Amino acid sequence: MNKKxxxxxxxxxxxxxxxSECDHPDDLLGPHKSGNSTLVQAYFPxxxxxxxxxxxxxxxxxxxxxxxxxxxxYFAVLLPEKNVKNYTYKVTxxxxxxxxxxxxxxxxxxxxxxxxxxxxxxxxxxxxxxADEIFGAHVMEHDGEMGVHFALWAPGAMRVSVVGDFNGxxxxxxxxxxxxxxxxxxxxxxxxxxCKYQYEIKLKGDIILKKNDPYASRFEDGVSVISEKSNFxxxxxxxxxxxxxxxxxxxxxxxxxxxxxxAKQIKKDIATLVNEIxxxxxxxxxxxPIALSDVKERICTNFFxxxxxxxxxxxxxxxxxxxxxxxxxxxxxxMPSGFGLxxxxxxxxxxxxxxxxxxxxxxxSADGKKGLFQYGRGEVxxxxxxxxxxxxxxxxxxxxxxxxxxxxxxxxxxxxxxQWVPNIYGNNENLxxxxxxxxxxxxxxxxxxxxxxxxxxxxxxxxxxxxxDENGIGFDYKWNEGFIGEYFDYISHxxxxxxxxQNKLTDELVYSYAEKFILPLTDELLVKNGGLLDLFPGNExxxxxxxxxxxxxxxxxxxxxxxxxxxxxxxxxxxAALNKLYTSENxxxxxxxxxESFEWLSNLNREGCYVSFVRKxxxxxxxxxxxCNFAGIEQTITTGVPYEGKYKEVLNTDSAAFSGSGxxxxxxxxAVDTQSDGRAQSISIKLAPLSLSVLKFIPYTETxxxxxxxxxxxxxxxIKKSKKTSSGAKKAGDSKGANKK
Length: 741
Fold this sequence. Notes:
By secondary structure, the chain is α+β, with helices and mostly antiparallel strands. The chain folds into five domains: about 5-105, Sandwich (Immunoglobulin-like), CATH 2.60.40; about 115-225, Immunoglobulin-like (Sandwich), CATH 2.60.40.10; about 235-480, Alpha-Beta Barrel (TIM Barrel), CATH 3.20.20; about 480-700, Immunoglobulin-like; about 700-740, no CATH class. Helix content is about 25%, strand content about 25%. The strands form nine sheets. Strands 19-20-23-26-27-28-29-30 form an eight-stranded parallel β-barrel, surrounded by five helices. Strands 11, 12, 15, 16, 17 and 18 form a six-stranded antiparallel sheet that branches. About 45% of the residues are buried.
């Protein structure tokens, strides 16, 4: 090495780079002015030689060999040019055969930084709601070159490197630049779309961590992948501009595993789903889960990744766009309640507790399978807020269903005394999580004011669907898991045991109007039971009858409807009929939030194991009478009714059309003057075992009413016979007798 070049070298800092402990590699590597010349330094571990291809000002392209400064692969050259612009390296490595291997690469360290201080300030304050656009790996043009910009939050790291299949996953090659104390960034020139990558994080004590990118939207073989820019063209502008009608919302829950990752096949899968939804009469779709997750444990591992069942993001966009074109709204399930504890994930990301609390009583779930977020840390809030809003912005979702809300709201969720840390007021409410949820809902509404935010919540926390203006949490809807849990506990018992636990069936009306509820007939009911029909006792015929009864019972209770594809496919005809009934009857679809719309007729008949109730509006002609036989035997049930008039059966779960035995009530029932259930009038209907009947009230016409009144008068009022008629009859009788005599 020539003396002039030798004197310019900072050997102490070079050693820091060679030992890969440098968080400011751009201070040495890349171009640096030196008088009227430019000193260029590069580090390519294991390289035999390096040349630099550059262009003189207004001159030809030149290839200049670089001098080796350290045998480990550190090279330098002094170029006789003050302002060296674009250049590339020709790096020669020892080949496997006779010839050496040449690689041409750009220089990451000649590029200026991209991240702005104001963005990091907002990130730290929990106000950077597009953090996914700042952090992660983004293909872009920068300083006249195409490449990938990498950015990572890792304040506890000594050094961070981008490693991937483009550099042999060698952490010495692309050491990142620390900016604003806690963030690392690096722009690497070149075409690296679809390449695998990770971050190698070096800690004190020579501890090395390999971590996936928290903001990566794609993974393969357990590592992050640099996604290509989406070129999808949306055609749902008209749909998004249209105001949605929500009172007849019926949600169809589908899983991603029904879609193929094959481009041609997924189009057929989408068409099948659209036809299924339209034929059945559903209005909305819940896609579950949106990210790579352990559904059983409700744990998300890769928050920005599209579920790998449908491969890449354009497939998801195609699904949403196709549904929107048919007027079908789309809801994503989102899991911000915690994260998986994989070594390459968020757990102790930079050797410190970044995303979770340091105290395991706060940072781990009760079973130790899930890390719990620090909802009071600004950077974590920015990460989660950006993730939820990303789903709405990038994929045009109409709603978000927040999963695992109870885990977020309660510090002691599932934990015994001594296993959790109280808040500053000494109670179990997670105040930071409440603030985060409220903030997210507010920001979600700013994306599109008709966006729905739902809570998949099993807690008894008050005010979940109360507006934030009234000091509530602000969800649009909450899943009524209490109703579902109590009902399926009841129906899972043998019919002869149900009388003693009838309160499980009836007590839920105490809180049915406390919130705006969705009744979820969801696949999560199946997790602990094995299969759908395993929820019910008895033989196959009895279990199918119980399934039909359960679906119908849910539809007839107050609350918006959610049905999983497994429930629907087991009873397609019934679900289609229920959807039609639900959307056509004001007493069902327009009165879900009105406590006056539901009234028990009979809910105390434990021996008969049946209940009856009405759904109604202010208009008597909207009234429906529902009679449910939970017994294992056929019964003729007499139930009181509110009005005199006719009652026509409009749905029976035992109908042959729904694969039942066909015991239905084809004749219109007239209320009779027989007291029952505290009512002056009643009707009697025949019900098969484990079945339900819905009867529509039909008022009498004036002619029918006059006839009913006449019949009642004749039946209940004695009519005095005429004396003249009686006397004449007697004489006639006497005369006949005399003649005979």
